[in-house]
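Troubleshooting: if your tokenizer reports a length mismatch, compare your output against this known-good record of 307 residues.
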Amino acid sequence: MTEYFRFVDNWTEEDLLTLPQGETEYFEYKSSKTPLDKLKDKISIAASAFWNSGGGIFIAGVNNSGKIDGGIPANVARQSIRDWVDQILASVEPVGSYSTKIISKETQNSLIQDNCVVLVVSFGASIIAPHMAYDKKYYVRAGTHSGPASHFLVEAIRGLRGLQKPMLRGLLKMHDEKSHIVELVILALNQPALNVELSFEPLPKIFSEHTAFGDKFPLHIPVIERNYPFRMDISMFPGGKQVFGDNPVRLKLNYQSVTGENFSEEQILDPSSNMPPMQSGKKTLDEIEDILKELTRHVKSIASKND
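Known-good structure output:
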């Protein structure tokens, strides 16, 4: 169905001649003789059912065998058929991904009548289900029919939403191979995330103090998936004021799912709670840094006496 959804925009009358000979769980047909007020309801129900069931294609202007039978009017009152369909689908809550193709008469031998069209609406798989039709009911596709969903099934569909939405989480940790480096790791907990934009609010101190780095945000990351997390070295310190300044910062992520849905995540990055202090023997790096500062002052003191 993913392939159909992506390429339905390129369909022609020739593609209609290759439709399955009868409705399936992925194809629903409506005859050209269907009254427009009834067709309006059928489109809304089909949208709910297909979005709740993994996607599918609704075609009006063909008979039960998928054969063109004249077509439906190209306009409804003063609206184009495309605008009419968009208005119908806008009443479905929430609106999922769809693509509309209007196929009109292309040759003298066309089976589509003058001033008529075949309407093709392709519904993509939804990750924001369940979807409610015009009549405040939820539908699912069962075989060749769209029927009301039970309360249990609606709750089950709603429960899948969190599993289908890509979930990204940021983690501050010590580098696995460089013990003196703190890194930010962005993990994909389930589905891949595409076209990720990474930014901070406010920009961490270590970046804001260096214009060359600050101008690079937001970072654009093509894909983050479970086996390929995003990693970025932050500092040679374990975080704290050297990196973030006086206050924690907010990690902001904008991204897309594989079906093109847009999502955003926000997460507080606070080294004091997100990451334990780096250890070196029995002393933390903070303690080592204090010792180094004391040694530096001592060396400067000796040098000044020698002068």
